Amino acid sequence: MDILFYICNEHKNQIIMTTLKSETLSFLSDHYKMAYGIRPMLSSYASMSIEALNNEIDNLSEVIDDNQEREYLQEGIDLYTFEALVDKTIKLGANDEKTALKWIFDGYLAERNIDKVNFFDVENFLYSYGIMHTKYGTRISTIIN
């Protein structure tokens, strides 16, 4: 046991640096995936210093923030577009929101030749209009079902 302790103590700084670099690479991999949707080839980052890796993580954080801002803006556009479609359908004779949603959903199903509706069809419908994760999407999913 004394020998093992001696070896670890002798290489303590190397072990700490290896652990820190490994954790930094893991953190970078997570950020890269959040930014671009896939994990990077870590071999291209292995020779970088911890400081350079941290700079890369900062750059990836900016990409993530930009992506989130774009997604938020797109969600607003999609919601506005879908609500306009519902309003237009009401003006064309649907009389109310529930009927308009049924007509729009029926059209969606007919385009895809779907006869039997299941939970996933409703989710796919909401997703295709970009409103699946909105409060409005959640509310109308109960109307459509």
Overall helicity = over 70%
Largest sheet: none
- Number of domains as seen in the coordinates: 1
Beta fraction: under 5%
Based on Cα principal axes, name the global outline.
elongated
What gap, in angstroms, lies between the N and C termini?
67 Å
How would you briefly describe this protein structure?
With 145 residues, the chain is mainly alpha-helical.
Question: How would you describe this protein?
Answer:
The protein has one domain. The protein is 79% helix and 0% strand. The chain is built from six helices and no strands. It is elongated, with a radius of gyration of 26 Å. Mean pLDDT is 89; it is low at 1-8.
Question: Helix and strand layout, with pairings?
Answer:
Layout: H1 2-10, H2 12-36, H3 50-94, H4 97-111, H5 119-128, H6 135-144
Helix pairs in contact: 2-3, 3-4
Observed structural traits:
single chain, 0% strand, 79% helix
